[in-house]
Amino acid sequence: xxxxxxxxxxxxxxxxxxxxxxxxxxxxxxxxxxxxxxxxxxxxxxxxxxxxxxxxxxxxxxxxxxxxxxxxxxxxxxxxxxxxx
Length: 85
Known about the structure:
By secondary structure, the protein is an all-alpha fold. It has one domain: Up-down Bundle (Acyl-CoA Binding Protein), CATH 1.20.80. The chain is about 65% helix and about 0% strand. It is built from four helices and no strands. The chain has helices at about 5-15, 25-40, 50-60, 70-85. It starts with a helix and ends with a helix. The mean pLDDT is about 95.
């Protein structure tokens, strides 16, 4: 199976996990997904200082700046596989 196909399967699998992951793990999934599909963060940080969720998402994605799309896909797939087992 090609990497992109594995990634798409993992993305679908992530929506049917037996247990809801922790908030930290959800941020990892989000940031790896965004880095895989969009590359480096391409939006400004949220301007609302009380929007903690958007700020956390932005920071998690920004922390992956410079990570290659393929590497982020592999990490995403590995994380989903870990969560499934």
